[in-house]
Write the structure tokens for this entry.
Amino acid sequence: MSASVKLVPVQDAYDDLLRRTLSRIPCNLGRLIYLASTRDYNSGTYHHEGLAARFHEDAARKALEVAHRQVFHLVAAISLEDLVSELDVYLKSSNESPEEVVRTWQKLEPYRIAVPTEVNATVARLFMSNLRLALAILRFRREPLPSRP
């Protein structure tokens, strides 16, 4: 191992991730989607250039994995009402049309990739079911009521 590489505890990388990156994302659902995006879809390994440069790559990878699992459990455990609120905040922070995101998410279910690899299958199914319901609720709330003749 090179003398220039400093092995830093995972906790330091995790704290840095929380302070510099995750604290700037307005909701836990947004944090979950972000953390899932740092995972390679083919290998399941996490990558974050900034953390890897600041800390050792292994510490960065583990910090991302731990944060992903923790945020997932936070989102999976909230009430449906709170999940609808989280989804609404996420949609408003997106650069896309909220209505288009809802339609796309209902069709493609991209949120399925937000589930960490090492998570209880029942919790994962509950998360996906609740997210489907939250999407349906938001879509219903956003659709204009039909006009009466």
In short: The chain is about 65% helix and 0% strand.
